[in-house]
Amino acid sequence: MTDFDSPRLIADIGGTYARFALETAIGRFEHRASLRCAEHADFHAAVSAYLATLPANLGRILHSAVAIANPVEGDSVRMTNYHWQFSIEEMRERLKFDTLVVVNDFTALAMAVPRLGPQERRQVGGGEPRQQSVVGVLGAGTGLGVSGLIPAADGWVALGTEGGHANFAPRDERELAILRYAWQKYRHVSFERLLSGPGLELIYRALADRAGRPDAADLSAPDITARAMDGSDALAAEAIEVFCLLLGTAAANLAVTLGALGGIYIGGGIVPRLGEHFVNSGFRARFEDKGRFTDYVRGIPTFVITAENATFVGASAILQSQLRALQGAPRSAILDQIQRGLADLSPAEKRVAEQVLAHPRAALNDPIAEIARAANVSQPTVIRFCRSLGCEGLSDFKLRLASGLTGTVPLMHAQVTGDDSMAELGDKVLGNTAAAILQLRDQLNRDTIDRAIELLNGAQRIEFHAVGHYSVVANDAQFKFLRFGIACNACTDPRLQLLSANVLGARDVAVLVSGHGRVPELLEAADCAKARGATVVAITASQSPLARKADLALIVDHVEDVATQLPMVSRILHLLVIDILAVGVAMRRSARALQNMGDGDEPGGAAAAVAAAAPGAPATPARRRGSSTPGVSASTPLARLTSHSS
Predict the structure, then answer these.
(1) For residue 559, what pLDDT is reported?
(2) How far is 620 from 608, CA to CA, in rounded Å?
């Protein structure tokens, strides 16, 4: 067992608990802790709280892997069963890690399976695993996780799935009664609705209803499990038995879907705690009851994962694989250029070069003042060093360095400083805006956008409320939606907003726009509109008071730097959200409305251009007529912002 150069932070984040540990060597986890998610505002707060408990002599943590109960696609993470959301890259920077890998928790659990010893799993029933065959993994906790492993030439490929949301299918009258009971509350009943902690509670209530016992206690999942295991509650014992039977159905479905001849492994927070009750349950009999495929599934073994740190093991394996890939990747071209040119640099510039070569990721993320301090040189020396490499300035140097380190140009914010030339200032302003737009594109929730478009399209009246710098967004929205023939108004005077909200009705929509979501007048207007029966849509920051009050929140997270004379990038982002909503309403109404939006030197043209440029977006009428891709013209949000600000 080889010690690491620095300890690695490994985390397992669920809907209820966030578990942490430091891995000091492969498979050796120390300083384990479990924190309640509800006691921490967000992911960063929970990690920071754990790090604060560690001994000061451990040194800096360079690498981290996080397994989270949520699909992970791209940079933005939004938990399904909890309200936490964050940007992976932003979190890496804030926590000062060199590497932060975030994966689905059941992907991590799946990657742990090949590393389990015989004492870390328990076979239930017969069957023998076929070597180098697909493996299925599932388990119940806050939700139902489903994954799989496919053998590859040099290891395994884990599947990231949402198989827990497959439709539940009853097998007998009792299960049909449970489904009917669940239908009273849920239109779509998936396996996760029943095979989870909340699902066990639902099964118990459904069985009580079926037995004609409306007086049965409303028990939590741990209480149901405890009563079933000590034999004090026959209804709880029946609920656990039904749970095991349904898990047998889900496991068999997974086995035949994946062709999982390597076996089915069951983890999660519920089944491993059942012990002998699960082994003696009807799980395996139900698993093998597969009609014409009974013989097929009978040969597939099923195992309960008993290893305490299985998810940690899998997350660690994924992190190790990522680090090996980075170490084996070609060296950054600009780092090679620096190395070759060391002899020709001045002594001061050479110190900058040596600092960059020793700490390339710090050079990528640190501001110029920090780079200069670490190299013991002046800030102009850092600029001269960058220009000696053929770069226009520090911003250009960082982009080239990032491209070499990661293989892609990252979304990053370049700080405007007093040392910037006008060319550098222009590059930074445009680069920051473009990066923010691309980040917004990746983070927008498509389902939420669709719901907002439906609300606006069906509204009898729309009120757009904003104050201060964001007033331009409300005015722009009023202009667009009036052209659809929708009665609407832009209210940007705080004294009138409450009066305006007080005349809304049940078929009306109030769209409230705010950068930080803490404007008292807008919060009061939201309360008033909802009290009148209107629907409140907020375009604002995540986890803000306004987002929490709204019926529907379109999240725009962009932190403005008010210490420098930067353009209001967030205003451009809010304008683009309005453009997206307007294009959506236009497409639902008629092709003529969409054409009118794009005609002439008017605000709709930018929306059509943005929509047409988005991956997978349908072509607008203007683009079908063969128009070229527009640049920044008087019709774009950027041009409108300039005109309003002047």
Answers:
(1) 64
(2) 6
Read off φ and ψ for residue 167, nearest 5 degrees: -65, 135
Side chain identity at 296, as an amino acid letter? Y
pTM: 0.52
Q: Which domain covers residue 382, as residue numbers?
A: 333-416
Q: What is the pLDDT, as a whole number, of residue 173?
A: 95
Burial of 26 (0-12, 13-18, 19+ CB in 10 A): middle
Strand, coil or helix: 156: strand
- Identify which of 449, 334, 353 has the alpha carbon closest to the alpha carbon of residue 398: 334
Number of domains in the chain: 4
**CATH code of 559's domain:** 3.40.50.10490
Give me the DSSP letters along 406-430. HSS-----PPP-TT--HHHHHHHHH
Percent of residues in the chain assigned helix, strand, coil, to nearest 5: 50, 15, 30
Same domain, 146 and 283: yes
Q: Buried b vs exposed e over 572-587: b needs ≥16 C-beta within 10 Å?
A: bbbbbbbbbbbbbbbb
Is residue 426 included in any domain, yes or no? no
Q: What is the pLDDT of residue 162?
A: 84
Q: Pick the closest to residue 533 from 502, 489, 498 (CA basis).
A: 502
Rounded to whole angstroms, the Cα distance separating 639 from 472 reads 12
